[in-house]
Amino acid sequence: MAPISRRRLLAVGGGALGSAALAGCGTPVNLPESMEAVRARPGKPNRGGVLHFGLSTDPANLDPHVTTGAASDFLRQLTYNGLLQYDGNGEIVGDLAAEFGWTDTTTYKVRLHPGVRFHDGTRLTTEDVVFSFRRMMDKKTAATTGPLLDLVEKVEARGADTVVFRLKQPDTTIPFVLAGPTANIVSQRWIESGADPMTQVMGTGPFRFVERIPGVSTTFTRFDDYFDDGLPYLNAIVFQPMSDDYARVTALRTATVDMIDYVPATHVDVISENPRLRFASDRTFGFGFVGFVTSKPPFDDVRVRKAIALSINRPSVLETALLGHGQPIDGALMPDAFAGYPRKLDNTLPYDPEQARFLLKKAGREGMTLPVVTTSTYSVIARPAQAMLPGIRAAGVDVRLTQQEWLTFRASVTAKSFPAHSWGTAPKFGDPSSLGDFLSSTGTFAVNTGFKDQEIDRLLAEGRRTRDRSLRDEIYRDVEQRALELLPMTWTIRRQQGEAHYDYVKGYQHPPKGSWTGVTLRRIWMEKTA
Amino acid sequence: MRRFLLTRFAQALLQLFAVGSIVFLLVRLIPGDPARAALGDGATDEQVAQTREAMHLNEPFLEQYLGFWGRLLQGDLGTSLMSSRPVMQDLPTRLGNSLELVLISLVIALVLGVLLGRIAATRADRPADHALVAGSIFGISLPVFVIGTLLLMVFAFFIPVLPPQRFTTPWEDPVTHLKILILPVVTLTAASCAVITRMTRSAMLETLNTDYVRTARSKGLTERRVIKDHALRTALLPVASAATVELTTLIGSTVLVETIFGWPGVSSLLMSAVGQRDYPIVQAVVLSVAAIVILVNLVGDLVTRALDPRAEEA
């Protein structure tokens, strides 16, 4: 073999590496610069502009019926519509529905807006609505809304513009379910043509999907034939996933993006004090809790569960973990905005390490070792878990916290590998019936504790059937009271959570009740002068 | 040389096979379910089980393993579990973006490091040498995320001459592209440049005291020629070896740099894939990065042999 000349070797090597680099230079979708222009309209919201949104999560899928959290719901709400939606105050209003309501205790009727079109130009029909709900109710879809439609016997089209939901028994949750971010209407023809709704998007919403580049961006542009006159005002929205809290806040502060979600508690003050920024938040949805595996020792003994619940110094956890941005929960899980009874249960579980010690002694668990698992992926969950340790130790418990990456944590919780887990989430919707997710024997979160109580199951079922407001308050108060006695899980703190944006972004509202749908993104506009 | 090439090539293939097998095994051993990631918190166990079936995650382990190598040999890196897109649709672009950062940083670190090392060695024990040694210790000691965050604070907040901007390709806007390159490249270059400076300095100091350098001087060559043609040339041998190590270090450092500066490289693809247990993407990214590292080491060995033919005899 002829010897390789050094210069040739270096030249070929360098050239190859250079070409590899150049060939690979790619980019997220770049919209034409003209789309950034904002057209002022006296007395009306401005038209035009592109909103760059720093999103806390890169959604795992774009399926209109399967949610992977509030961040993915933001995307979904721009391109799809449901029958109902929440307005900026969290009240239920029509979306595709022009009229809606109960005709009797087991029949809910919806009349559709005329002239609604999908992004491919086809007209929305009642058959699409029926097909969409059948898809949600089909277990193969694994739809988030599926289990909430368990009392629906039949969804049927009546004429060209009316859809009727027939229920097996009265169910007050139906309007909340229909307004949820995953009760979207899809095109039957589109789905049946073999489209993959996890990666492709086609709805009736104000924005149409352009492209998603995993980990980089998801781009939507204006749908000119949107049925709601004048909407949307923006030309486009570009979501850029920024899972790191600091990176997301820095991107906002340096105007790399116009808006972000999931403002971390540690940055709420920095953002609130900036006169150019606006923080839109609530203190009603997000909360933390400690779940106990009630089917195994030591938490098969309610005295031990109560001891841990009493040893959590909630005001201190709030201050330490979230710098005071939220509220301690020492009583009902539901906030005042959702029901009339919560205040009556305040101070049921005050910080009382002495009483906790006493209960542990009675249970024969004095000085016990307690492994607790939490996740390291989300600071909003990890920080409260860390902050509750001193209180529990003060009760004489040798608590040991293990932090795991999100899916590993989920696997540990499902397998009940640890006797207790510290988690954070939010109710599915703003009504006490959403307690079922945490307390009913089949609730998504309740199954992790192995908790089953026939009385709570009975009350939850009764609450769903009851329409009288004061009666419902009594029922759900009983549910919460019993949960505070049996303690399959103990609530810790309610967190302030919200989005931040520049003051030139107008019209965005973060509803104080209802659900985290981000639906008001459909109605925002820009007042940029530059 | 032929024997050497064949042996190294075979070793490289074996290394790739080992890396591929280990990654294949490890990603499946990590607790956490891609189906759970795709369905979110609200999914019941029954729904997760159905989705696992749809994602073909219940196939026997051996079948999955053989299928993985079978497809790979046909140039198919698989399809993302989450986006259902072929891995090859995203990987080259993202790898290219990362390589751009790494290669530019390495070239700057090499040029600057050799230059500074030479200055330090030829001014040994003088103020310039002390300053360069102190500077290089500083560069080596500071972690990449500290340098990146400091640069961002200074040049984005306090003196906003280089605010972070949206990623733009050189084809769209070369000036903006250059601007957004500066901070991540400086961050990546700092530590590597310091390592190369120290290595060049010590190698040159050693060479400057050898007999053949003294001979060259005694022949009446100018000091400039002695350093350029005799001392520096020999001193570059360990630097060339160090460069391959630095390149692999730089590839590792991009994970943090891409996160800090929002650079759409291969790291963000890997991070999001690990978070969602998107096995095909994790495997493809790790394998491609491993292939680059193995190739770089192979090239490094060849360069060393080309620069010092005596090594061939060893």
From TrEMBL, chain A:
One of its GO terms (biological process) is peptide transport. Residues 1-23 form the signal peptide. The keyword Signal applies. One of its GO terms (molecular function) is peptide transmembrane transporter activity. It comes from Streptomyces armeniacus. Residues 91-442 form the Solute-binding protein family domain. One of its GO terms (cellular component) is ATP-binding cassette (ABC) transporter complex. Keywords: Signal. Coiled coil: none annotated. This is Solute-binding protein family 5 domain-containing protein. It comes from the Bacteria.
Automatic annotation (TrEMBL), chain B:
Residues 95-300 form the ABC transmembrane type-1 domain. Its main location: membrane. It is found in: Cell membrane. The chain crosses the membrane at residues 12-30, 101-120, 132-158, 178-197, 235-261, 281-300. It is a multi-pass membrane protein. GO terms for cellular component: plasma membrane. Coiled coil: none annotated. It comes from the Bacteria. Gene3D superfamilies: MetI-like. Keywords: Cell membrane, Membrane, Transmembrane, Transmembrane helix, Transport. It holds the Pfam family BPD_transp_1. InterPro entries: BPD_transp_1_N (IPR045621), MetI-like (IPR000515), MetI-like_sf (IPR035906). The keyword Transmembrane applies. Belongs to the binding-protein-dependent transport system permease family. This is ABC transporter permease. It comes from Streptomyces armeniacus. The lineage of its organism: Bacteria, Bacillati, Actinomycetota, Actinomycetes, Kitasatosporales.
